[in-house]
Amino acid sequence: MKILAFTDIHGSLSALRRIEKKTKSQNPDLLVCAGDVTIFERGIIGILRRLNKLNKKIVMIHGNHEYDKTFVKLAKMFKNIIFIHKNYFVQDNVMFLGYGGGGFALVDKEFEKIAITKFKQLIKNNQDKKVILVTHAPPYKTRLDKLMQGHCGNKSIRNFVERNKIDLLICGHLHENFGNEDKIGKTKVINPGLFGKILIL
Q1: CA-CA distance, 124 to 119, in Å (whole number)?
Q2: Long-range contacts made by residues 140-145, C-beta under 8 angstroms, separation at least 24?
Q3: CATH of the domain at 110
Q4: How far is CA 193 from CA 96, 109, 114, 145, in A?
Q5: How many domains does the chain have?
Q6: Which helix (H) or strand (E) holds 156?
Q7: What average pLDDT does this structure show over 159-184?
Q8: Comparing C-alpha atoms, which of 121, 132, 53, 119 is closest to residue 91?
Q9: Residues 6+ apart with CB under 8 A from 109
Q10: Residue 155: how many CB atoms within 10 A of its CB?
Q11: Contact 196/14 with Cβ under 8 angstroms?
């Protein structure tokens, strides 16, 4: 499967144009967005309409600049927008798990609850599939959460990745780390940045 992943475009027209161009030239099977498509939801309908017109399924979560309830409502308006916060989506041999929002906490009890009650069972029931976890917050202690003052990512997400079979983690939030990649055990972790990155599974 070929994926075009992106994050944190924050309403940037140049970023949208780059995403559109890459979609046409690379012809991915689907797109994945790790949140923050807007600045506090400004122009969100226009942005989602433009993404929807790419005629590719777009698996999305919200970032800290959007509300999950807004996406639940708008995903019903656009056939290609698939909102997976606290949920999942399966295409071919790949299962996507999503958890949006946040980005500032070292520990996320709500994520831990969903991970134990839902995500863990989904992984167990889909052992024949590759698993992609999409979060807005980066996992703790990687190249994706390191700033001048040290690591500031999420320990709950890292612990879940360490204990479960996750093939790929796509995240965002920290603009300073756009394009960075790392590994947690066998799991590849990536912040694809606002201009998007092609990933082959």
Answers
A1: 9
A2: 140/106, 142/182, 142/184, 142/189, 143/177, 143/180, 143/181, 143/182, 144/171, 144/174, 144/177, 144/180, 144/181, 144/182, 144/189, 144/190, 144/191, 145/174, 145/177
A3: 3.60.21.10
A4: 19, 27, 26, 13
A5: 1
A6: helix 155-163
A7: 97
A8: 132
A9: 156
A10: 16
A11: no
Are the beta carbons of 21 and 195 closer than 8 angstroms?
Answer: no
Tokens 């780390």 belong to residue:
177
Domain housing 32: 2-200
For residues 154 and 139, is the Cβ–Cβ distance under 8 A?
Answer: yes
Type of residue found at 104: F
Cα radius of gyration (the chain): 15
Structure tokens at 108: 């996320």
Give the span between the Cα atoms of 24 and 54, in whole angstroms: 8
Region for 27 from its dihedrals, namely left if φ exceeds 0, alpha if ψ lies in -120 to 50, beta otherwise:
left
Kindly report the backbone phi and psi dihedral angles of residue 189, in degrees, each rounded to the nearest multiple of 5, phi listed first.
-120, 140
Q: List pLDDT tens digits, range 138-155.
A: 999 999 999 988 999 999
Contact 168, 201 (CB under 8 A): yes
| Tens digit of each residue's pLDDT (9 = 90 or more) over 37-78 | 999 999 999 999 999 999 999 999 999 999 999 999 999 999
Give the total residue count for the chain: 201
Q: Crossing angle of helices 44-52/68-75, nearest 10°?
A: 40
